[in-house]
Amino acid sequence: RWEERTQADHGQGGDVSAETTRDAAQLHTPVLVDQCMDLLAPALTRPDSLLIDATLGMGGHTHAALTRFPHIRVVGIDRDPQAIALASERLREFGQRFEAVKTTYDQIGQVIDDHSADGLADAVLMDLGVSSLQLDETERGFSYAHDAPLDMRMDPTRGRSAAELIADASVQELTDILRTFGQERFAHRIATLIVNERAEQPITRTGQLADLVKRAIPAPARRTGGNPSKRTFQALRIAVNNELDILRAAIPQALSHLRVGGRMVVEAYQSLEDRIVKEIFAQGARDNAPPGLPVVPESMKATLTLVTRGALQADSAEQESNPRSRSVRVRAVEIRSPWRPQ
Questions:
Q1: Alpha helices in 142-270 (DSSP H)
Q2: What is the pLDDT of residue 316?
C-alpha cells in the first residue's frame, strides 16, 4: 500500500513511541478514505458490527472507521510486526473496540471465526500492495531509491529475502518471476545478468540490483516509463511475499464469512491485483444457470451485487493532494445470499 508515510525509527522489537505515533498520524493520508467509508457504511448498521481491516498498515482506515462508526468493532490483520506495533499504539484510544492479529490475510476466515460468535463479519476492507511504512523504511529493502539490504519481506521475521531468492533461482525461474509479476519485457536479459553477476559476487544490496537492471535494459527503453527498476522490484516483492496467491485465497474466504447484506471493499494499485479482484467479484455477480432457463433457481442465482460498476478511481483533486492515489482502483460488492464459489 502506498497511502501511509512514517519517518519513525522502529526498534528491533517493534516498540513504537508516542512521538512516532503522532508523527505517523500527521503524515498519514489514506487513499480514498471517505469513499471507502461510504461504501462500507450500509453494512455497518448493527450494534457491535464487525469490520475486518485485512491490511491494517499504520491503521489509517481503521482509525477513520472507528471514529465515524462509534458502534462497531474492528479486527486488523497484518503480517508486519512493525505495522502491528504502530497501529496498536495509535488506536489505543479505542480500547476493546480494536484488536490486531499478526498473520497473512489468507487466514481471514480463521480470524473471523475467532472474533465472531456466528463466524460472520459485517464488512471487509482490503488495501492491497506494499505500504509506505515498508517503502519508507530504507533498511527493509523495498525501494530502489536508496541503497539497503535486499530484503523485501513484509514479515522480516520469516521466509526468504529477495537476496536469497535471486541467489538460488535459475535464469528461467527469474525470467518467469520478472515477466509474470513485473510485466517486464526485458526479463530474460535481466535474469541472465543477475545469474552472471552473482557468479562473481553475491547480490545483497538494492543498489547493486538497481544498477544491474539499468545495465540490462537498453538505453532507449530507459528514457520513458519512469525508473527502469520499478518492474523488477515489484516482481521480486510479489514473489518474496507470495502476494497474488494469498490474495486469490483470501477473497473467497472473506466472502464466505460475510453475512447477507455485508460488504467487501478492495483497493488495488496494479493490474495483477485488480484483475484477480475483478474476476472473482464478476463471477459471484453472475447467475450460475444454463442459458435459456425460463426461471433461474435460487441455488443458481448470483450471490454478489456489484456496488461499484467498474472501478472507482481518485479524482483529480485527490491525485494532486495525494500522489499515491493515482493508480488506485476500488471495487466493492454486497452479499445478496450466502457466498458460493462458482
A1: 162-168, 171-182, 187-198, 206-216, 219-222, 230-241, 243-256
A2: 87
Residue 322: how many other CB atoms lie within 10 Å: 18
* Contact (CB, 8 A) for 244 and 272: yes
What is the predicted pLDDT for the residue at 11?
Answer: 31
182 within 8 A of 191, measured Cβ to Cβ? no
The CA distance from 261 to 255, in Å, is 11
Closest CA relative to residue 222, chosen from 181, 189, 250: 189
Q: Is the pLDDT of residue 19 over 90?
A: no
Q: Tell me the C-alpha distance between 148 and 207, whole Å.
A: 7
Mean pLDDT calculated for residue range 59-78: 97
- Please state, in angstroms and rounded to a whole number, the distance separating the CA atoms of residues 34 and 14: 30
Which are the contacts of 41, defined by CB distance < 8 A and separation ≥ 6? Answer: 68, 69
C-alpha cell at 112: 473471523
* Backbone φ, ψ for residue 123 (5° rounding): -160, 155
Alpha carbons 257 and 110: distance in angstroms, whole number: 9
AA identity, residue 14: G
Q: Alpha-carbon distance 334 to 41, whole Å? A: 11
pTM of the shown model: 0.88
**74 φ/ψ sector (left φ>0, alpha ψ -120 to 50, else beta):** beta
C-alpha cell at position 158: 520469516
Q: CB–CB of 47/115 below 8 Å?
A: no
Contact yes or no for 40/62 (Cβ under 8 A): no
Look up residue 140 and give its amino acid.
R
